[in-house]
YebY family protein (Trichocoleus desertorum GB2-A4), 123 residues
Amino acid sequence: MRSTLQKLALAIAAITLSISIVFSGVLPIMAATSNSITISQAEFGDSWPFTVSNGELYCIGEGNGQQVGAVVFATEDESYAVNGTAKALGYKAIEEIWRSNPAIPGTKINIGPIIQRGLEICK
């Protein structure tokens, strides 16, 4: 039977490993992925859902042991989770740059086309 100290040491080691995996950086995961495209407001017109004018849309996970289908939008300064799979990987919430819909107060511009486009590059 394991002593309490041994159990505590194993628990601490497991927590430390989990934290180091989470905080080892999401950008290296993104860098290892070649599935990306540049998208911009010019391309989407009034249906552009972001407050920034352009960025890189990534599909994270294909072939590197991560969850497949994580769609990430990267600006010069930050990488944002476009879908729930990317949010689960720890990417920043897209709400910070998600544009309000001027036609329907209290709502946001439809982000579905961006998610769809990101999932297409996952293939």
In short: The two ends are 49 Å apart (CA to CA). Strands lie at 36-40, 54-60, 70-74, 79-81, 92-93. The longest strand covers residues 54-60.
